[in-house]
Amino acid sequence: MKESDFLQYPAYRKLALLANTPFDLAKEGNLTPARLAHFSGESAGYRLLYGTERVTDEVMQALFELAREAHALEKMAQMQSGAILNFIQGYPSENRTVLHTATRDFFEHPNQGKVALAAAQQAKKEVDKLQSFIAAIDQGKQFTDLVTIGIGGSDLGPRAHYVALQHLLKEGRRVHFISNIDPDDAAMVFKGLNLSKTLVVVVSKTGTTLETQANEAFARAYFTKAALPPEKHFISVTSQGSPMDDKQRYLESFYIWDWVGGRYSTTSMVGGLLLSFAFGFDIYWEFLRGANAMDKAALHSAPDKNLPLLGALLSVWNRNFLHYPTLALIPYSQALSRYSAHIQQVEMESNGKHIDQKGHLVQFATGPVIWGEPGTNAQHSFYQLIHQGTDIIPLEFIGYKLSQCGQDHTLQGTTLQQKLLSNLFAQAIALAVGQKSANPNQQFQGNRPSHILLGKQLTPFTLGALLGYFEHKVAFEGFIWGINSFDQEGVQLGKVLAKKVIDRFADPQHSPAYPLGDAFVKQLETI
């Protein structure tokens, strides 16, 4: 078996040796204010505090060397300029550019390549069309509700960002989401809706996504039954020329392109339409500005100014050298209650790969399992296992100095926001240093690594920057591992087999036999 490039880097061997004696956070006197100040970086309105990770200057220097040997920064620049990075060498693959950054590259772009410039011009054309469309909706005041139908990247990212900005919801506007093919999902959304005042946006790049097609048909039936023409209420977000690019069936069609992966599509029309409808076009524009600011930070050669690279290197250290298989993403912000689910897809659909870009099986761990819930709720749920369980689980915290809504209350000398942040900081410290006790049940081993992504306030701009941070962190991981972070063959097999089972439901007499599927279907007869 051919050894992957990742294992051959000189820095890899250096890091493997350093991992034998990682920094002891629990040793008395090791975790100091000076250390916390030293291990930090800053980009696009965020500070990354990683003094509570098991790293030293020597470890960080070796990680920076690893990034250089893997040409991670060069690959990021190539990605943002329009090079073809979505490929598997020597095998059929998507063989595409990766240009979700072009969907927000309308600001300063001195190093923008011709391919990226052309993509940005295409994206800007849709943004301008969206601005006019939203202005007409606002002027007409006919529509109060928007139902968005999509799945995967067409749902998780847009939904997470809608929830994150709900405090800015325009008066008289509501957004609802249908993703699951479970008919109860759609039935509950349409229950009580005034359909005459409702728009439905259907999102599918290919126009052929099974779950989305089924839910669209279900939704159209509601309008037909109410004697409302669906073509005056339905909007599509799809590829130009797809089955959903049909002016006879849709009030308007907005375009996305094959150089935008679904999980990276929130800043495109996939998220732009619903964010603009809900909050106003200006809020969406600020969101794009924030994402673009982090795009530029991801090109910075100084590691302490490049938070996505720093985050990726800490992830690689924990995953490949300290051998921790999962990462808990814990936002100390209720507005980010759906963010862990979104980043779970961005990371796990991108870097859940067992071959490298040369088509060889890798001999090392790739994408970690991402999971999480908001603090402080999580503290009263699964933190017991994180503090005293047998598996060490690194944490990535997100927190803000100021509350989002600006409403607070002082109790016993401190505000609720101060109490929230106190819990965040206390958890990072407790996980790192632990607690010694003669009572074994009250002993905490410590050396549970974490880092904090800290911002001033969660705004449309900083929300966009947060999205950019995670998108580029994931890309940097893939560049370092030498895998393709931009396709998702792993979701295809189940889709193909599901179609065979569906055919047996539809016409068991004439559809091709599928014994394994039949065995499950027959179990329904016994219930």
Question: What does the model show?
Answer:
The protein is an alpha/beta fold and 527 residues long. It contains 18 helices and 15 strands. It has helices at residues 5-8, 10-18, 33-38, 57-69, 72-81, 114-140, 156-164, 183-190, 210-225, 269-279, 281-297, 307-321, 339-351, 383-388, 416-433, 460-481, 492-506, 515-523; strands at 40-43, 46-49, 84-86, 96-97, 145-149, 174-178, 198-203, 234-239, 252-256, 326-331, 369-371, 395-400, 410-411, 414-415, 450-455. The strands form 4 sheets. Strands 1-2-15-12-10-11 form a 6-stranded mixed β-sheet, with helices on both faces. It has a 5-stranded parallel β-sheet with strand order 6-5-7-8-9, sandwiched between helices. A two-stranded antiparallel ribbon has the order 3-4. α13 (339-351) links the parallel β10 (326-331) and β11 (369-371). α2 (10-18) packs antiparallel against α4, α4 crosses α12 (307-321) and α13 (339-351) packs parallel to α16. It starts with a helix and ends with a helix. The model has no long low-confidence stretch (mean pLDDT 95).
Spatially, the strands of the biggest sheet line up as 1-2-15-12-10-11
Shape: globular
- Helicity, in percent? 40-55%
Mean pLDDT: 95
Spatial gap, N to C terminus: 49 Å
SS elements, strand count = 15
**Rounded radius of gyration (Å):** 24 Å
Largest sheet: 6 strands, mixed
* Parts with pLDDT < 50 across at least 5 consecutive residues: none
Oligomer: single chain
Number of helices: 18
- The proportion of residues in beta strands is 5-15%
Structural class: alpha/beta
